[in-house]
């Protein structure tokens, strides 16, 4: 409420200041003209301005029409100081351009005012000086200030739009920072689920194997049973933490991969923990891209985690087959019976919305396929991965980058770990991947830091390039709005130069022709005195100008003339902007009959 009142008070003060300035100009024009009608030439204009100035905010076109009416009044009455209202007309035309966004309605208003001015001159048979006034001064006072107002409005809009975009960019930066924080939490959750959960499952399995050892006492077995229960509780707590920390479904980042550990290291660690697993490879290992190798690692890890949880006493078979263009990973864990607990592995065993569903999404991003379900010999998890990520993988939406190691910024790779089993939460790339060039989009989608020297191929684009996978540039909304505002500003600037040129094409020839008529119809007083009544025209022709004055006033025409005589008028001076005395020559045939002086009508 207070802000509204302050704004209204400021507007009223600005209107009062504008009215004061225009009223001062009107009073000065009235004093300079010496008019004898204070009511018509002073009070009426001040009242009209008092109405037009406030209306210039709500109805700027009406305000321009009102002030133009004062100029029309000056055209109708030669004693009215019409020039005093030109400043008011220019000021309100400028406000019309600054306060009205469109151009159609203001141009109609300006054209209507100009047409009214010319029609007034035509109806009242105004003097040439007023025609010149209506053809040049009034159109300039209407058009040029309007263009200046539009330019001012466009510049103000451009500045306001720039500040708005800056504010939006600042807010977006805050959102990006918040998103980065949430992404880091999701990466921590993924790491805890995939790595810590797997490690705890192996510990629980080993504790279960020790519990069956014949060398243990009943007390030792009870302690191991308590240990298994504690580990199971820890796994559940990890899952609850994952549910709190990770993003909503669909926001899987694929972070937290133990990228410094190979599939062979994973299987060796599982065997060392007591998991009955057998594995083998067929074919020569091809150079796999980093995302594909990480995907293969995750397939084996997820399958082992499900098998050790839901069928801990059953054997597991892992077979990796390298074909010419793809690698097939098959994990089978034997089941005891069709109704046994091993069939629980068909679900999302890992909980928290991840497990096999998340694995399916990861493999699909890589351009491969995943099949899970019971089959001959047990529960099957089979993944087919291309050696290189396909275009479909690159067209996917990139996810945030990898989790930073402690004390290291996110996205910075640490040194490669030495040979042998490594921590599943490490973030360094595998040494054997140094020659592989993973696709940038897939690397980001899987949360793997790409090689610094790798650039996207022709079918992909960098994440911050602002383009699509097909290489087409996509302009943000802010750039489109900025281009639109700049286009409007350039159009207004062009109009500001073109409009005066167009006006000059029409007005300058008219003004030049009028000036030519006025200057070629001047009869100097000395020659007028040499004219002798009764002499023929052929003798007086050297003293006469080239043509007669074509625009005598009604006052000059009303002067009585001799019956049957033909009268011509000539100007007595070359002043184009002031009324001068006229000389009248009346002829009877070709003989000069009379010569008279018609005084100019002056206030």
From TrEMBL:
Spell out the residue ranges making up region: Disordered.
390-475
One Pfam family this sequence matches: HisKA_3
This entry carries the following GO cellular component terms, namely:
membrane
Q: Which CDD domains match?
A: HATPase_UhpB-NarQ-NarX-like
Identify the EC number(s). Answer: 2.7.13.3
SUPFAM superfamilies (alphabetical) = ATPase domain of HSP90 chaperone/DNA topoisomerase II/histidine kinase
- Reaction(s) the record says it catalyses: ATP + protein L-histidine = ADP + protein N-phospho-L-histidine
PANTHER family under this entry?
A: NITRATE/NITRITE SENSOR PROTEIN NARX-RELATED, NITRATE_NITRITE SENSOR PROTEIN NARQ
Q: What is this protein called?
A: histidine kinase
Q: Which organism is it from?
A: Streptomyces anulatus (Streptomyces chrysomallus)
């Amino acid at each position: 409420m207070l802000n509204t009142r302050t704004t209204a008070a400021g507007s009223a003060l600005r209107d009062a200041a504008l009215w004061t300035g225009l009223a001062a100009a009107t009073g000065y024009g009235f004093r300079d003209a010496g008019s004898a009608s204070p009511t018509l030439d002073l009070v009426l204009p001040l009242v009209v301005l008092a109405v037009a100035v406030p209306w210039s905010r709500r109805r700027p076109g009406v305000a321009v029409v009102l002030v133009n009416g004062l100029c029309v009044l000056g055209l109708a009455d030669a004693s009215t100081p019409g020039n005093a209202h030109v400043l008011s007309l220019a000021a309100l035309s400028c406000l019309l351009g600054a306060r009205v966004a469109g151009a159609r309605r203001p141009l109609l208003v300006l054209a209507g005012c100009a047409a009214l001015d010319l029609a007034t001159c035509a109806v009242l048979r105004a003097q040439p000086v007023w025609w010149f006034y209506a053809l040049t001064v009034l159109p300039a006072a209407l058009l040029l200030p309007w263009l200046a107002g539009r330019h001012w409005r466009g510049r103000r809009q451009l500045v306001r739009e720039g500040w708005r975009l800056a504010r939006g960019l600042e807010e977006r930066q805050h959102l990006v920072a918040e998103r980065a924080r949430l992404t880091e939490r999701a990466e921590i959750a993924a790491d805890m689920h995939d790595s810590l959960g797997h490690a705890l499952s192996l510990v629980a399995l080993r504790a279960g194997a020790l519990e069956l050892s014949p060398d243990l006492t009943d007390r030792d077995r009870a302690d191991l049973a308590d240990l298994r229960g504690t580990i199971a509780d820890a796994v559940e707590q990890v899952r609850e933490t994952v549910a709190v920390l990770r993003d909503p479904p669909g926001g899987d980042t694929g972070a937290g991969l133990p990228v410094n550990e190979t599939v062979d290291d994973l299987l060796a660690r599982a065997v060392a923990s007591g998991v009955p697993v057998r594995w083998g490879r067929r074919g020569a290992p091809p150079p796999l891209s980093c995302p594909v190798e990480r995907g293969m690692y995750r397939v084996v890890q997820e399958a082992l985690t499900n098998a050790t949880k839901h069928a801990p006493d059953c054997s597991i078979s892992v077979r990796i087959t390298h074909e010419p263009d793809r690698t097939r990973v098959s994990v089978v864990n034997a089941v005891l019976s069709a109704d046994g607990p091993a069939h629980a592995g068909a679900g999302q065993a890992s909980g928290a919305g991840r497990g096999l569903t998340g694995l399916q999404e990861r493999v699909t991003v890589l351009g491969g396929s995943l099949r899970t379900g019971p089959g001959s010999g047990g529960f099957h998890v089979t993944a087919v991965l291309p050696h290189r990520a396909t275009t479909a993988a690159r067209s996917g939406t990139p996810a945030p980058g990898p989790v930073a190691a402690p004390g290291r910024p996110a996205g910075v790779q640490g040194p490669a770990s030495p040979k042998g089993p490594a921590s599943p939460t490490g973030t360094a790339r595998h040494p054997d991947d140094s020659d592989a060039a993973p696709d940038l989009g897939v690397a980001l989608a899987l949360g793997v830091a790409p090689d610094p020297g790798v650039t996207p191929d022709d079918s992909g684009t960098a994440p911050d390039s602002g383009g699509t996978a097909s290489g087409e540039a996509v302009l943000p909304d802010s750039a489109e709005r900025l281009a639109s505002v700049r286009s409007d500003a350039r159009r207004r600037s062009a109009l500001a130069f073109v409009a005066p040129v167009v006006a000059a094409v029409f007005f300058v020839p008219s003004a030049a022709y009028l000036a030519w008529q006025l200057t070629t119809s001047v009869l100097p007083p000395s020659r007028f005195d040499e004219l002798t009544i009764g002499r023929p025209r052929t003798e007086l022709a050297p003293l006469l100008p080239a043509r007669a004055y074509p625009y005598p006033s009604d006052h000059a025409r009303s002067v009585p003339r001799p019956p049957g005589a033909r009268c011509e008028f000539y100007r007595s001076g070359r002043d184009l902007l002031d009324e001068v005395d006229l000389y009248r020559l009346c002829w009877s045939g070709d003989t000069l009959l009379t010569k008279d002086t018609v005084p100019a009508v002056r206030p």
